[in-house]
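Subject: design request, 374 residues
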């Protein structure tokens, strides 16, 4: 097992994990009305660019220009590493970047003032490591919406190899016009705050965020990442399997022989799109988890793409540490075929394990198993 030494979230709800987690407990949401490039109503969770820029300049005192995704990424990683007390420049520290789009917004700007390589994810990952003086080649993970889980599984592998003492996993994505238009072309965006697993769900909300988890091998009371699994059912370029095949297999692999009764809750992907939520319900039922309480965080943060797996892992594990099961905001009317147990109120638990699931385009699915290692 590897252990979570520290974490950070930068979102529309705050620039610290504490602020974001407290906002979730208070039932707050960062989702607000917006417009797509064609002028249609959408609901989206956006970072405040002015506040982000001001905070970044205050913390780092840098004169060089950095894009908004870079600022959010660097600030999140810095805060988490400061809390962990690790050496960012050590050869025993490795960086892992999770992002689906990075600086793709630069494509729409006729003159953005940055070198052309700034568009590439490998450059963004290199900037992350280089900014903190780290000598190692960073790992770049871009695997659709499961990127944040894949990056944490990469951390397990990197630490198990014995070449590193610490791995800094950072995810970031914003929601520029390119991304909004892409999801709108699927008719998958809801003009109002989304409703995961609810009968009235019409689609997802996009979100902007950066999130970081610092992992290490040193055992400490708190959260351990026990296992992770990735399975692809290759069902469709954008549509999930109707039988939940990939997610089912990922669940069975990650859980191993752990009984379902030992699991406190599932932090589901829960995008509020008709097909994703149905697929997850089928997979949970097939895996014998139909009685396990589940919730989604998409109505608070929106779908933050490459940051989602990290951000939602942080919130879920915070709840696990405090013995709490969060409600699934926006859920009122059952809208899923099959038996699932959606959490509707804040409740307590004394169980030590929780599951984080993610699914994405191309039939990819990922599962993480966390333990509150007392």
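Subject: RE: design request

Done. Sequence follows.
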């Amino acid at each position: 097992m590897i252990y979570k030494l520290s974490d950070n979230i930068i979102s529309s709800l705050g620039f610290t994990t504490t602020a974001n987690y407290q906002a979730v407990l208070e039932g707050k949401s960062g989702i607000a009305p917006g417009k797509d490039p064609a002028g249609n109503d959408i609901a989206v969770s956006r970072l405040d660019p002015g506040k982000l820029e001001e905070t970044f300049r205050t913390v780092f005192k840098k004169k060089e220009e950095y894009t908004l995704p870079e600022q959010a990424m660097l600030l999140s990683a810095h805060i988490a590493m400061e809390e962990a007390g690790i050496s960012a420049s050590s050869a025993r520290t490795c960086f892992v970047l999770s992002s689906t789009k990075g600086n793709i917004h630069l494509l729409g700007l006729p003159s953005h003032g940055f070198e052309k390589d700034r568009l590439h994810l490998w450059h963004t990952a290199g900037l992350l490591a280089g900014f903190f003086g780290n000598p190692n080649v960073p790992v770049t993970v871009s695997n659709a919406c499961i990127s944040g889980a894949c990056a944490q599984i990469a951390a397990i592998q990197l630490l198990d190899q014995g070449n590193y003492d610490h791995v800094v996993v950072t995810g970031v994505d914003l929601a520029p016009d390119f991304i909004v238009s892409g999801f709108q072309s699927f008719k998958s965006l809801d003009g109002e705050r989304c409703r995961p697993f609810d009968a009235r769900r019409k689609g997802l909300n996009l979100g902007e965020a950066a999130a970081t988890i610092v992992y290490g091998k040193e055992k400490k009371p708190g959260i351990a990442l026990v296992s992770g699994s990735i399975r692809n059912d290759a069902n469709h370029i954008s549509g999930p399997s109707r039988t939940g095949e990939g997610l089912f297999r990922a669940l069975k692999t990650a859980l191993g022989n752990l009984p379902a009764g030992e699991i406190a809750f599932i932090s589901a992907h829960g995008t509020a799109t008709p097909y994703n939520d149905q697929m997850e319900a089928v997979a949970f039922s097939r895996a014998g988890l139909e009685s396990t309480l589940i919730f989604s965080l998409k109505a608070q943060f929106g779908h933050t793409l490459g940051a989602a797996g990290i951000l939602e892992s942080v919130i879920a594990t915070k709840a696990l540490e405090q013995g709490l099961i969060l409600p699934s905001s926006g859920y009122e009317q059952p809208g899923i075929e099959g038996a699932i147990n959606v959490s509707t109120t804040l409740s307590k638990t004394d169980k030590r394990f929780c599951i984080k699931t993610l699914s994405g385009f191309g039939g990819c699915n990922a599962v993480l198993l966390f333990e509150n290692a007392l």
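The first strand starts at residue 2 and ends at 10.
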